[in-house]
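Quiz preparation item.
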């Protein structure tokens, strides 16, 4: 029941097909998700030690064409998670949750993954009106990234501020052939 619901199933369909009440459905979802969260092997873990960071970089290098991506520890991106308009009694600045770009209310979710596209870190601490670059700087991961050893970095799209530790693409990349594409 939980897997079907987590895979974007309608809670109405899942609940009615399973023959459980609304209360029982949500109780089972909370119980399973709490169990997943409590399991130590399922915790997100961005590499914080230099050996772990170098190991992550080697894994990215092995996946790239001709081993051209050297030093990449992870990839970061942002996503607007749509929400209902938050009540004024719950938040002091309702407008801060409105994204002018997407024309909807939401929460800015920042996520980082490693070479197998599995999450290593996630945060949803910024309102939807916050740009990805600012949301990243507010995230504790940005301090870890700032202190990456020389030659190690993460990659992000061009909404982030380019630094030696967070690389972003050049505007309008010109890829001549597949050999030039990492």
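Solution:
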């Amino acid at each position: 029941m939980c897997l079907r619901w987590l895979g974007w199933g309608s809670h109405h369909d899942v609940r009615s097909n399973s023959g459980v009440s609304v209360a029982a459905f949500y109780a089972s979802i909370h119980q399973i998700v709490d169990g997943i969260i409590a399991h130590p092997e399922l915790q997100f873990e961005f590499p914080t030690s230099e050996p772990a960071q170098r190991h992550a970089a080697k894994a990215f290098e092995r996946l790239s064409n001709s081993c051209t991506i050297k030093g990449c520890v992870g990839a970061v991106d942002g996503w607007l998670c749509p929400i209902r308009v938050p009540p004024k009694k719950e938040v002091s600045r309702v407008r801060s949750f409105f994204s002018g770009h997407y024309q909807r209310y939401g929460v800015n979710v920042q996520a980082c993954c490693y070479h197998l596209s599995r999450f290593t870190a996630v945060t949803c601490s910024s309102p939807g009106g916050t740009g990805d670059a600012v949301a990243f700087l507010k995230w504790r991961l940005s301090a870890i990234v700032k202190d990456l050893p020389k030659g190690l970095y993460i990659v992000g799209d061009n909404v982030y501020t380019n630094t030696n530790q967070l690389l972003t693409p050049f505007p309008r990349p010109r890829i001549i052939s597949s050999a030039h594409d990492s």
